[in-house]
Amino acid sequence: MSTTAIKLLALALMVIDHVGEFIPGMPIWLRYMGRLSAPLFFFCMVWGIYYTHDKKIYLLRLYICSILMSVLDYLVPKICGSHEMISNNIFSTLFVAGVIISAIEYVHKNPSKKRKTVLVILGWQAGALGISLLGDRFLNSAEMILTTMVGIITTVEGGPIMVLAIIILYYCKNSRRKIILGYGTYCLMYICLIVTDFVPRVFSRLDFYVNNHIFDGFIEMARIMPFGLLGIDTIFYTRSWYKAIFINHYQWMMIFAMPIMLLYNGKRGKGLKWFFYVFYPVHIVILYCIGIFM
Known about the structure:
The structure is a single chain. With 294 residues, this protein is an all-alpha fold. The chain has one domain. It has helices at 3-22, 29-34, 37-51, 55-80, 90-109, 114-138, 143-150, 160-172, 176-195, 198-204, 206-210, 214-224, 227-230, 232-238, 241-248, 258-261, 273-293. The protein is globular. 30% of the residues are buried.
């Protein structure tokens, strides 16, 4: 399969997933199918950034799209008069991961600049965090636009754990064996952590602890330590592993995207670049409005 074919399959799965997300009363298995979509887009993205002739333009395109998507996420619910927020912005995840991958490639070509590059990335995220704190204090619900503009890793869709998935796929992309071992291990570790609710508490929801709730967050972490932080109390709360992995946390099903990745034939296909950039926000707005007015 070419990257275009994989993208089209990922797009179809994404639509199915978002129908399950936005339209009331849809069966949960639609969300299961949708778990394959993001990893397939991630896989195509790492090849896209590898082969692109101009990484700066590639990243700028993702950055602009992420900002426009955050504006839509903010405005559409207000226009519809709904309190239901939109949090979908895969462009932000791809942009942040793309910057980190570009930094990794730069270090590989310039080993002497490794320390400086790491400091720049850390400084970027530290500065983004500071700006995010100010945004949370003064901008209320419009904070999502500011956090997207500064590219803070804790607030991208899926959180740092999805950025990590993209980086792992980048290192594994050249070998089917590496994909099986690297991406497979990542998914297995993900399910072990997610069943205990460790990832949502510590990684994906890190933004809760670092915004206006810093003090309350540390108090809560102290209260739930050591068992709550590891999510042991969550297992008891859910009462069954079945509910934990099939009802509450089914993102682990992204492991089933791996066989499709293994079918990649190294070819680009027809491209259809702008189609994907346009289709993503348009279909989200349409499905959201349908769901609100039903």
